[in-house]
């Protein structure tokens, strides 16, 4: 099964790195969509069907936690897995993301092995 993935991060470089690492991790990818913040991500999800979202926590306009909260309010996205990608060292935001329904998290910087391990349950 191919995963259609939405990568949400305000850094274009991080979005490209995540794409490269997903390929290195041998994740069976379909389409990859990108968004620079939560607002843009919601627009993408309004027009594209994805199987997985990788979202940064710290972004302008609508951060990852606000995005996750908004997303989980919509019944059609209730089961959509969202993995938070973060530089956050503290547990508070990671715990908040889990309480909002995040399916997991990956700390930056990440490796292909970490990505593969975290995403293995979605393959």
Overview of this structure, please?
With 123 residues, this protein is an alpha/beta fold. The chain has a single domain (3-64, 75-122), classed as Rossmann fold, CATH 3.40.50. Helix content is 40%, strand content 22%. It contains five helices and five strands, in the order βαβαβαβαβα. It has helices at residues 12-24, 38-47, 64-72, 91-99, 112-119, and strands at residues 3-8, 29-35, 52-56, 82-86, 104-107. Strands 2-1-3-4-5 form a five-stranded parallel sheet, with helices on both faces. Helix 1 (12-24) links the parallel strand 1 (3-8) and strand 2 (29-35). Helix 2 runs parallel beside helix 3. The longest helix has 13 residues, at 12-24.
For the sheet with most strands, the description reads: 5 strands, parallel
% residues in beta strands: 15-25%
CATH A-level architecture: 3-Layer(aba) Sandwich
The CATH homologous superfamily: Response regulator
CATH class descriptor name: Alpha Beta
Number of helices: 5
Topology as a string of helices (H) and strands (E): EHEHEHEHEH
- Taking strands numbered 1, 2, ... along the chain, how are they ordered across the largest sheet? 2-1-3-4-5
Q: What count of structural domains?
A: 1
Roughly what percent helix?
25-40%
The count of DSSP E runs of length 2 or more, i.e. the number of strands, is 5
Given helix and strand content, the structural type is alpha/beta
Report the CATH topology name: Rossmann fold
How far is the N terminus from the C terminus?
7 Å
Arithmetic mean pLDDT: 91
Uncertain runs with pLDDT below 50, 5 residues or more? none
Rg calc:
13 Å
